[in-house]
Design a protein that fits this description.
single chain; Substrate Binding Domain Of Dnak, Chain:A, Domain 2; 2 strands
Length: 307
């Protein structure tokens, strides 16, 4: 998105906020939605690149390029899945500010009611001073209005205190959830990066003085095992647990936000049934569609939720 387009979008948010207020909060929510869309566009571009890389490698005659780059493509798709999960966490984070906006709108409504009652009370007091109407009936109306105003004042005061407390609780809870999501995607990134390094090391070394003698590639089985192990480790990572009610939990701590791996002893062991080579053209690839959903040949990739 160009700077001019971004400026127009922000200006539109401000204009729509003129009647209801909360322009900074509405702009914050809009920017968060835009951030999520940028991530989705990035993921789609990465998947497209990975598929193009795989198609090119399969046209090459060098088996090392065919096998390693195909498995690198599989790792790239694991990375796309990890980012997709993080995009979901961004939506959960945005819900915090949408909830705060709803609370502010409710408070504004009560404040307007209080303002209306105050104006009505002043008007009735003036009528009593002038003595132009039935004073008994006017005094009764004034008493009812004053009582209603006192109730409205108490409601406004209570909502103001409640809103400030809820803001602190929800923002703190949301930041903890987002930190957990950042930690999880970071762990996945490290796993995938280490696996890609292992794949690269499987490719035979060719010295500058022996360019005519290309060693035979023997890493097909090991490359399949590397991807298999990476996927297994990622699947054992616990997904982030979101505070759906956005209420403060006194037991939250930074240690509990670290990505947890189940059955850690199994991660270093070899798979009981290691996969065979995946260099064939019939191997499963995931294809991005126009609406940023990801379609698998034999298993599904959940589409991104709309804002």
């Amino acid at each position: 998105m160009s700077k001019a387009t971004a400026a127009l979008r922000r200006g539109g948010v401000r204009l729509r906020s003129l009647g209801s207020g909360h322009a900074p909060l509405n702009l914050l929510i809009s920017e968060q939605s835009n951030t999520r869309q940028k991530y989705k566009d990035l993921i789609a571009a990465q998947v497209s690149f990975s598929q193009t890389l795989d198609r090119w490698s399969q046209e090459e005659e060098n088996p090392a390029l065919q096998d390693v780059l195909h498995n690198v493509t599989e790792l790239n798709l694991l990375w796309a899945e990890a980012q997709r999960d993080f995009v979901v966490s961004l939506k959960e984070y945005k819900k915090i500010y949408e909830k705060i906006r709803d609370m502010e709108k409710k408070l504004n409504t009560v404040r307007k009611q209080l303002s209306t009652l105050e104006e009505k009370e002043k008007k009735l007091q003036k009528e009593i001073v002038k003595g132009n109407k039935d004073l008994s009936a006017t005094r009764d109306k004034l008493k009812q209005t004053s009582d209603s105003k006192m109730l409205a004042q108490a409601e406004v005061s209570g909502l103001e205190r409640e809103n400030e407390a809820v803001k602190l609780m929800t923002v703190k809870s949301g930041l903890l959830d987002l930190s957990q999501a950042w930690g999880l995607i970071g762990t996945k990134c490290n796993l995938i990066a280490d696996s890609q390094k292992e794949l690269a090391l499987l490719m035979p070394d060719v010295g500058s003085s022996r360019v005519q003698e290309i060693p035979t590639y023997t890493g097909a089985r090991d490359s399949s095992r590397i991807v298999y192990n990476a996927r297994s480790k990622i699947e054992l990572l616990l997904p982030p647990q979101y505070s759906t009610d956005q209420s403060y939990n006194s037991e939250l701590s930074y240690t509990s936000m670290e990505p947890t791996i189940l059955k850690r002893s199994t991660l270093s062991s070899k798979p009981s049934r290691p996969p065979t080579s995946t260099t064939s053209s019939s191997s499963t690839l995931r294809i991005p569609s126009a609406n940023n959903d990801y379609e698998y040949a034999d298993d599904s990739f959940d589409s991104f939720e709309s804002d």
